[in-house]
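This part of the workshop introduces the protein records we will be handling. As an example, a complete record with its sequence and its structure tokens follows.
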Amino acid sequence: MVNLKKGTPRGATDGMRVVIDILTPKQCMFFPKLSEKLEKRGHEVLMLTRTYREVNSLLKLKGVDAKVIGRHGGGRLRDKLEASVERMGEMIPIIEEFKPDVAISFSSPELARVSFGLGIPHICINDSPHAEATARLTIPLSERLLTPKMIPKEVWVRYGIQPDRIIQYYALDPWVWLKDLKPDESILASLNLDRSKPLLTFRMEESFAAYLLGRIRGESPIISIIDRLLKERPELQMVVIPRYREHISTLREAFRGKLGNLKICESIIDGPSLLYYTTIFIGAGGTMSIEAALLGVPAISCYPAGPFLIESFLMNEGLIIRETSPERVVRLILKMLEDPASLRNRQTERARRLTERFEDPLEVIVGVVEGLK
């Protein structure tokens, strides 16, 4: 990645200058792979991010250098707006100094707006049309939208982009970092887990996302499920992965004095490796449920706002089961644990049949970037 203050002068190379904004854990996995591919082709890349616990820790874990600008806005709309406005103000001089030929983001409102205002083409990558706020703020300002073929173009057109500006690839985004995954078994030792015993992994819901504000009420479904399992099968190994500091304190309080074999990940971990060694995954979000499905890990989604398009696709492929009732989720888990090896074999074969047809999204994205030269 280019050092902003020591970047190659304009015209000294035939390569392009590309600025990328990294906002979420998924993007921490995806964009360094894209950056590496672009740099191998002679392009300069400047990666930006914001102050956000999971993202900053994951970038550090992966050894990725990204310039921190601004902060996550939290769970209130006004705070989100103020953080976004402040971040755009901080971003403008940095973008002006770097002089990028193209900007790329997963619907970053700040990078899309700043790029548009400075006359820099913005490439939007997005697999989440259900995230309406960010889609409305970014897609109309984008030169191109890149998205999985599993999402029909007409879903995106309503956000203000012409169909001929939408480029599709036949793959799901997590395949970018999963196709060459070399799972690290040391993740088990770091969490004091026994590989010979069943392991349940849980992912908390994205409760601060704009598209879920006001739609999650009452107790977290994940907490309800774990609570029931601790009563019925306290010997089970369970790991829960929070998203926010607030989740950590909520989990500590909910399970005070009754943790048993439950591990709460208070620091960032190697998620794909943990998933690889997981017996059953239960997720209330998006990306890790997709990862589990593509790895052939039996996956249950209790995503609180209804199935999104990619989730529906994976349900049709037999790779995700959707259930939102904590009581029914527990019954389903106990049923799956009756013969977990056979279940894993079936899911692995289903995942193999799907992913062998995938193309490489990075090849498509790089082609679009270079087409703007």
